[in-house]
Write a structure and sequence with these properties.
Largest sheet: 4 strands, mixed
Number of domains: 2
Number of helices: 18
Bound molecules: iron/sulfur cluster
Radius of gyration: 28 Å
CATH superfamily of the largest domain: Hypothetical protein, domain 2
Strand order of the largest sheet: 4-1-6-5
Strand content: 5-15%
Mean pLDDT: 83
CATH architecture of the largest domain: Orthogonal Bundle
Number of strands: 7
CATH class of the largest domain: Mainly Alpha
Structural class: alpha+beta
Distance between the termini: 74 Å
CATH topology of the largest domain: Endonuclease III, domain 1
Length: about 475
Amino acid sequence: MNTSSESFHVDSSRRSADESRLKKARNRVENFPYKKARDELLMWFYANGRHFPWRDDPTPYRVWISEIMLQQTTTQTVLGYFERFLERFPDPKALAAASEEEVLALWEGLGYYRRARALREAAIVMAERFDGRVPDCYDDLLSLPGVGRYCAGAILSFGYDKRAPILEANTTRLHTRLIALGVEPSTSAAQKLLWQAAENWLPRETSQTQTGDYRRINGALTDLGRLVCQPTAPKCDFCPIARFCAARKLGVQIELPNRRKRQAPIQKTDVAFWISRGDLKTSRVPSLPGAPESPTDVLIMRRPPWALWAGLWDFPRLEVVDPRFQQKDEWRFDPELADRLSLFLETEVGAPAESYRPGAALKLFRHSVTRYRVTLSLCRLENADPALAPVAAPSLFDVLPPTDAPLASPPEQLAPSPDAERLKNKPLALEWLWVPISDLKNRPLSSTGRKIARFIENWRDEGRR
Ligand code: SF4
């Protein structure tokens, strides 16, 4: 048998095993004793359910804001932001009337900033099409930016107490185990079955259903998944519905859900620049309106819509692409980076290369964004004229041990650019601004931008200029 027919054979036998597992799980969904399990689950929930501001006072608006904030973010972190956000924007109309910058400023530190922009855009739609209210029908909710199937179900069930299923990480794991679903839960057949299971837990509306039932049942399923049916060590001995759980009966609860292996993180090296107004002889960058100009003003840029942290402010930065210069703490300014910086500043801010030179690396920051593990060096740019140069900053080179293979040393001075004159009047592609250091604390910054701003503020407070 050749290789391709072998792989076809493996694929088709895997497919038929998956189909058989799906069939068994489908039977379990159809025959699950929902009523009995629900009664026991709710008893447990009355004694063990968690309390949150959006749960204890669940208006549709509060639920919507909390659900968006909770995406990819822990409850503990959201608690610090939720009331502050609600105080400033108490309803969709107030949120719709705010500027993007105002919303981002209150969101700073929560991460995934596209959520904040989507919230504001959705609030504008609510103000224009829904009389300033959070819609109470599934299709209208799905038409809003940033609202998907889970979020719509959460708003309907938690906010309006309507019969709407939800499925997120905790409930996916819980339902997968309850029905012993032995296939990867993100496949479309598995998703269909899991949504069906989630819906079956919610009784049809009759004279027997009580106010708050849908809200409670979905809350209880979420809490049970979070508190008891935990990812690596489910606490089955404390589970109120353990006797109905197929995975436990089969002894496979720890193996489920079947997940694809996570991809390894990618290492990345960036360098950010602290550029003071006094370090560039000229530039086409505007100043902050109303602020007196000072040589210590710093250059910042608004991150473009297609980039990470879109819409937030940041310090100019470049990615180090040459692997020789990606060696953790041994990063040094290299000629290739100097060329790119020169081109960057000439084309973006109209600063001729002869007016400055790359300065010392001052500090290393490390952070993670999705799959990336980023090492970021903060580098100072210095005025090329030694008479005007600021007080020399200590360099990382002073504190790091010398490396065995010395890297390129900083260039003495970059060559004048013949294009500088031509670039003088070119419109800026990105949004740039000179701002006083004291303005940085009021401005929405990327997470690493905030770390750099604190570093610069401390520097200034210590009187080091
Ligand atoms: S019995 Fe164990 S695996 Fe099953 S739902 Fe409860 S905690 Fe999860």
